[in-house]
């Protein structure tokens, strides 16, 4: 009788242990699944974007459709987007942003692009210099400098990061020019200094374009030009080149981001080609988020 009782007790203990192990394993798997699926809930199914007219926002909206996501793209500004990113990282919270590179945030934070197997964002991009028609004839030396202007993502990010850290944009640009005389001399090679000719450059308030436009503006000033920089949104920026109100931009993201504007103003502007290769746009998340593809955002 006693032996039989101990046997029954042993069966009960073994069964309880088995249930506990299975239960813990199931709970662990369930917790991971819940953590993955709860990203959307924590973010209110929101992708944090920049201004509504930006090509990266339009591409993100296209991605939402292509991947059948239950997300909306919330537009704001570049500054508001990076502030939201900073706040999320500080609290190690999930966030998905409309990102692009080069950008200082990739130097400051540990970020990753979500894979885009359906190529909703297209492939690699480049940033081009675009001039008004007739600039080559009217101001050949300014045209030559703008045409020869080119630098790398690393160059641009170094300038952007210092500006973001609070340094004056003109001082940062001036220091970069001083430190990179060999590169700048290639941009101005064959150009003759002038005496106060005006040059008008337009740009959008993206960190990339703030850096590049202020930099090339100073180079033109050093060559004797009276330079005016005008900050506008993407649509007016392109319109100003087509109308001749501005002489040039160094801020044309092609072939994807500004594809619409390039098509709209075909034959009304002159594309001088890339001033920076290897640019990219897409959905970006902090590396601590346990997702790797846009497909992972699907419920």
UniProtKB/TrEMBL annotation:
Pfam families according to UniProt: OpuAC
Highest taxon of source: Bacteria
Membrane is among the record's keywords: yes
GO cellular component, one term: ATP-binding cassette (ABC) transporter complex
Signal peptide: 1-27
UniProtKB keywords: Cell membrane, Membrane, Signal, Transport
Gene Ontology biological-process entries: choline transport; glycine betaine transport
GO terms of molecular function: amine transmembrane transporter activity; carnitine transmembrane transporter activity
PROSITE patterns the record matches: PROKAR_LIPOPROTEIN
Subcellular location: Cell membrane
Annotated ranges, domain ABC-type glycine betaine transport system substrate-binding: 38-178, 198-297
Principal subcellular localization: membrane
UniProt key word Transport: yes
Protein name in UniProt: Glycine betaine/carnitine transport binding protein GbuC
Organism this protein belongs to: Clostridium vincentii
């Amino acid at each position: 009788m006693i032996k039989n009782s101990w046997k029954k007790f042993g069966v009960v203990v073994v069964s309880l242990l088995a249930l506990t192990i299975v239960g813990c394993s199931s709970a662990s798997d369930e917790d991971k699944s819940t953590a993955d699926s709860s990203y959307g809930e924590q973010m209110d199914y929101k992708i944090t974007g920049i201004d509504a007219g930006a090509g990266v926002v339009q591409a993100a909206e296209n991605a939402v459709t292509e991947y059948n996501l239950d997300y909306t793209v919330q537009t704001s500004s570049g500054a508001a987007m990076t502030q939201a990113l900073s706040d999320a990282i500080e609290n190690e919270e999930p966030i998905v942003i409309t990102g692009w590179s080069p950008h200082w945030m990739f130097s400051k934070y540990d970020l990753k692009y979500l894979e885009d197997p359906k190529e909703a964002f297209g492939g690699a991009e480049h940033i081009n210099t675009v001039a008004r028609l007739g600039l080559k004839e009217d101001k050949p030396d300014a045209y030559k400098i703008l045409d020869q202007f080119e630098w790398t993502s690393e160059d641009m990010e170094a300038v952007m990061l210092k500006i973001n850290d609070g340094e004056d944009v003109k001082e940062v640009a001036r220091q970069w020019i001083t430190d990179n005389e060999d590169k700048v001399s290639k941009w101005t090679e064959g150009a003759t200094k002038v005496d106060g000719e005006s040059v008008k450059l337009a740009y959008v308030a993206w960190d990339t374009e703030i850096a590049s436009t202020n930099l090339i503006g100073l180079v033109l000033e050093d060559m004797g030009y009276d330079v005016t920089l005008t900050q506008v949104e993407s649509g007016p920026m392109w319109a100003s080149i087509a109308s001749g109100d501005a002489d040039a931009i160094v801020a044309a993201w092609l072939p994807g981001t500004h594809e619409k504007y390039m098509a709209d103003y075909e034959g009304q502007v002159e594309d001088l080609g890339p001033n920076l290769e290897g640019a990219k746009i897409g959905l970006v998340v902090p590396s601590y988020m346990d997702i790797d593809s846009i497909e992972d955002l699907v419920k």
